[in-house]
Design goal:
This protein has 483 residues and is α/β, with parallel strands linked by helices. It is built from eleven helices and 30 strands. It has a six-stranded antiparallel β-sheet, with no helix packed on it. A five-stranded mixed β-barrel has the order 6-9-7-8-12. The longest helix has 16 residues. The protein is globular and about 75 Å long. The two termini are 26 Å apart. The N terminus is likely disordered.
């Protein structure tokens, strides 16, 4: 996939946003889950954090369509949310496994060198909130001058509290009125140390955002982490197209070390600069952070429309159904169709401990929501019991499920809305509303939506095993082998 070079003339500066779209957002469970993490959730408005990030970088002068770095599990979610938001993408690169930020940015740099003519890369996490985008645009404008001189620029958030959940950057000598040399990066401090950082005035929060020319990043990576450079170079050389995605071979990427850009490059280079910025930034890493950036009522509460409250203060409640709260103070209440979280807001960081416990127990609620999105649409697990399961399935117009077979279950399909084209062995039928069909165990079958409106149906499964891994695929429009 190549970039759109149809512009007449060339912009004075070309910026290629690189959106890092990994991570699981464990501390925002039960909304954020492994297969549908926080960057794809709407936490602070109607758009998801990923869509907000795409909108933010698209508004920058000289910015081209973003290059998205994600993984195979999230590829269709990222592509669909970009489409829904009306955002063009330069490409979507798929990492076969998470190796932290330094290798991900290296793969992005290799792609940009091949297709975009060595642009300035603006590296942004997909899951942050910035309330003052004008401040960010001004900071990027200053950083461009440094990057064009070969510097590797990071953006330091002006701190307003002794925060222990962020890393810090200590600035050194002043370059000009806009930025400084980087003296050192500092790990997340304890409270006492964070207080001294705030009083010192020469420390910024580490935002995880960077700007540099692609070739300069690769030069510095080759100098300081030659092994990582070689592994990423070989991995990108083996990249191949998979539908609308660029896939990195797992066997080549497996040998790549895992390390952050801070450790691999920024702490070692002598060309690191920091531009301070105060854009109303948050990494929304926990429910307490969602409360902090949320629109509060007169009592300091952040409640959604389904909540009715009496005598509550300084609390956050996010629910999917009518919920009545009485006399709560400093609490988090997060309700989803299959899980409920209630916590003291000061203990919001401990949600990750709950997730770790649930994973030890093998609970699927750490990975999936009751409603699961697929490239063809979605399904919602309505009910289940001994040897049966009921789902509500929605298939997009023109979409189809894979041609498949099950070893352990049979299925009944009842059309609720739209038209279904059903293949069952050698037989193909069209079903309209209130019509149904039966798919026997072991039968090769496929469900399609030939119409122009979403197809909605109820599926009743019965059998000895009803897991999603009981799928044998013969053909698939989305290049999936399983799942």
């Amino acid at each position: 996939m190549t970039m759109d070079d149809s512009d007449e003339g060339e912009a004075a500066v070309m910026i290629l946003p690189v959106i890092l779209c990994g991570g699981s957002g464990t501390r925002l469970w039960p909304v954020s889950r492994d297969k549908y993490p926080k960057q794809f959730q709407s936490l602070t408005g109607e758009r998801t954090l990923f869509q907000e990030t795409l909108a933010r970088v698209a508004a920058l002068d000289g910015a081209r369509p973003a290059l998205v770095m994600t993984n195979g599990d999230h590829r269709f979610i990222a592509a669909e949310q970009a489409r829904e938001g009306g955002f063009a993408l330069s490409a979507v690169l798929l990492e076969p496994e998470a190796k932290n930020t330094a290798p991900a940015i290296a793969l992005a740099a290799f792609w940009s060198m091949a297709y975009a003519g060595d642009p300035l890369l603006l590296v942004c996490p997909a899951d942050h909130v910035l309330r003052d985008e004008a401040a960010l645009r001004a900071a990027v404008g200053h950083a461009v001058g440094y990057a064009e001189k070969g510097m590797l620029v990071t953006f330091g958030i002006v701190p307003n509290a002794p925060e222990t959940g962020y890393g810090y950057i200590k600035h050194g000598d002043k370059i000009d009125d806009a930025g400084f040399r980087v003296e050192r990066f500092v790990e997340k401090p304890d409270v006492a140390t964070a207080v001294t950082f705030l009083e010192d005035g020469s420390y910024f929060w580490n935002s995880g955002m960077f700007l540099f020319r692609a070739s300069r990043y690769l030069e510095e990576l080759k100098l300081h982490r030659h092994d990582m450079y070689v592994a990423c170079e070989a991995s990108y050389a083996g990249a191949f197209a998979d539908l609308d995605f660029v896939r990195i071979p797992a066997e080549l990427f497996a040998v790549c070390p895992s390390e952050s850009i801070d450790y691999a490059v920024m702490e070692k280079t002598v060309q690191a600069a920091v531009v301070p910025v105060d854009p109303g930034w948050s990494d929304v890493g926990a429910w307490s952070a969602v409360w902090e950036v949320g629109a509060k009522d007169a009592d300091g509460n952040v409640f959604d429309a389904a909540v009715r409250a009496i005598g509550c203060s300084n609390s956050l409640a996010r629910t999917y159904k009518l919920t009545a709260l009485i006399g709560l103070d400093n609490l988090v209440v997060v309700d989803t169709p299959d899980a409920l979280l209630v916590a003291d807001i000061s203990r919001a960081q401990d949600v990750k401990k709950v997730v770790a416990l649930l994973k030890q127990e093998g609970r699927v609620e750490t990975e999936l929501h009751r409603k699961v999105y697929r490239p063809w649409g979605s399904y919602d697990g309505v009910d289940c019991g001994d040897r049966f399961q009921v789902k509500r399935i929605v298939v997009k117009p023109g979409a189809s499920l894979s041609l498949q077979m099950h070893h352990h279950r049979a299925e009944h399909w009842i059309v609720v809305k739209g038209t279904a084209k059903v293949t069952c062995d050698d037989r193909t039928v069209l079903l309209s509303e209130n019509e149904s069909t039966y798919i026997p165990l072991g039968t090769k079958h496929r469900l399609e939506n030939p119409g122009r409106v979403p197809l909605e149906l109820i599926e009743v499964q019965s059998g000895s095993y009803l897991g999603e891994d009981d799928i044998v695929r013969f053909e698939d429009s989305y290049g999936r082998d399983r799942g």
